[in-house]
Specification:
single chain; alpha+beta; four-stranded mixed beta sheet; 10 helices; 10 strands; globular; binds adenosine-5'-diphosphate; binds magnesium ion
C-alpha cells in the first residue's frame, strides 16, 4: 500500500534533533544559533532533467541535494547548523525514498547538521533544500572582497563532473575506475565546509563553483569590480581529464559546472596562511591566477599559446535562461 504524506514524512524525514530547539512536526522549527552570531541562509533547487539525470541512484541524489547547499555555506565560511527539505515527487515510492533519505541524512550526520522541517507534495521530482549556518559578524566570505593584486586560488580538481556528463552524452569515452571516479565527482560532490571555515580571516573573497570556473569567476569580478588573469596550465585536474583531447579538456576546466570546489582570493602575503588552511582542512589548494584592475578584463594564458591570451568566445558560464 502506498504511504500517505504524513506517514512518509514521519518515516523518512523526521530524524531526532539534538542541536535545534525544535525539529519537524510542528508549524515551525526553532533554532538556537550561538548568541551574537549572524545566520547564513542559502537555498538551492534541483529539478530532474535539469540538475540531475534520471539515471542517478537515489542515495547519491539525496547526498548531492544537500551537498550543493552545504557548498554555499562553505563559500561564505559559515558553520552549518540545520536544513529544511521541500520535496515534490511523483509517487510515495519506498524504493526511492529510503535510499534518498539515507544519502541525505548520512551527509547531514557527517556535517553534524539537522533536518528540521520541510514540505512534501506530489508532482514532478524536484528537491529544494534551505540550509542555515552561522558566522561571526563581519567574517562571512563574500564575492565582493577581491582586490587587484590578490592571488586567485581553487580547491580540489576542476572539470571531472563535466567530463562525466560528456561521457553520458557520448562525447567522451572512459571506462572502469576512471569513469567511476568522474561519475562520483558529478554525483557525490564533497562540499568544502572545513576549508571555508579555515579561510575566514584569510581569504578576501570566495565563491563555490557550480556553473563553471569562468562563469563563477565573472561573479567575483562583477561583485568586486576587478579583472583577472588565469593560467590554464595551472588549473588542477585529474589524470582522466588530462588524458582528454585539448578542446574537451579546456571546456571541462574552464566551463564545466558542478565542481563544488571553492574559488577564492587572498593577498599574496597570505599565501602561507592559505596553504595552512588547506592542510588543516585536508583540502588541496592551488594558485591559478591573479586579480587585476577591472580595466584588464579577463585573460587566460596557456604555455602553448605563448604571450597571447586565449580566445574565450563561447565560454560563458551556465545560465538557465540563456540556453
Ligand atoms: P504545514 O501544513 O503546517 O506547513 P505540513 O503538513 O506541510 O505542515 O508538515 C508537517 C510537518 O512535517 C512540519 O513540521 C514540516 O516541517 C514537516 N515536513 C513536511 N515535509 C517535510 C520534509 N520533506 N522533510 C522534513 N520535514 C517535513
Ligand atoms: Mg506544508
Amino acid at each position: 500500500m502506498a504511504l500517505g504524506e504524513f506517514d512518509l514524512i514521519e518515516k523518512y524525514f523526521r530524524p531526532p534533533v539534538r542541536r535545534a530547539a525544535l525539529g519537524g512536526g510542528d508549524d515551525c522549527a526553532l533554532l538556537m544559533p550561538t548568541p551574537g552570531m549572524q545566520l547564513a541562509i542559502s537555498t538551492d533547487l534541483l529539478v530532474e532533467g535539469r540538475h540531475f539525470l534520471s539515471t542517478v541512484a537515489p542515495e547519491r541524489l539525496g547526498h548531492k541535494a544537500l551537498a550543493v547547499n552545504l557548498s554555499d555555506l562553505a563559500a561564505c565560511g559559515a558553520e552549518p547548523l540545520a536544513f529544511t527539505l521541500a520535496l515534490s515527487l511523483p509517487r510515495a515510492d519506498a524504493g526511492f525514498l529510503a535510499p534518498f533519505a539515507e544519502g541525505l541524512l548520512a551527509l547531514a550526520e557527517q556535517h553534524e547538521i539537522e533536518l528540521i522541517g520541510g514540505d512534501t507534495t506530489a508532482g514532478p521530482l524536484t528537491i529544494t533544500i534551505t540550509v542555515f549556518g552561522q558566522v561571526p559578524p563581519g567574517q562571512a566570505l563574500l564575492r565582493s572582497g577581491a582586490r587587484a593584486g590578490d592571488d586567485l586560488w581553487v580547491s580540489g580538481c576542476l572539470g571531472d563532473a563535466r567530463l562525466a556528463l560528456e561521457v553520458f552524452r557520448g562525447r567522451a569515452e572512459l571506462a572502469g575506475e576512471a569513469f567511476s571516479a568522474v561519475r562520483e565527482a558529478m554525483e557525490r560532490p564533497q562540499p568544502r565546509v572545513a576549508l571555508g571555515l579555515a579561510l575566514r580571516g584569510v581569504a578576501s573573497a570566495a565563491i563555490d563553483l557550480s556553473d563553471g570556473l569562468l562563469g563563477d569567476l565573472a561573479h567575483i569580478r562583477q561583485r568586486s569590480g576587478v579583472g583577472a588573469t588565469l593560467w590554464l596550465d595551472a588549473l588542477p585536474r585529474s589524470e582522466a581529464l588530462e588524458a582528454q583531447p585539448d578542446a574537451l579538456r579546456r571546456e571541462c576546466l574552464l566551463a564545466g559546472g558542478d565542481d563544488y570546489e571553492l574559488l577564492f582570493c587572498a593577498p599574496p602575503d597570505r599565501a602561507d596562511a592559505v596553504r595552512a588552511a588547506g592542510l588543516a582542512s585536508g583540502t588541496p589548494v592551488t594558485r591559478i591566477g591573479r586579480i587585476e584592475p577591472a580595466s584588464a578584463g579577463l585573460k587566460v594564458y596557456a604555455e602553448a599559446h605563448g604571450h597571447e591570451p586565449l580566445d574565450l568566445a563561447g565560454f560563458a558560464g551556465f545560465d538557465h535562461f540563456k540556453r
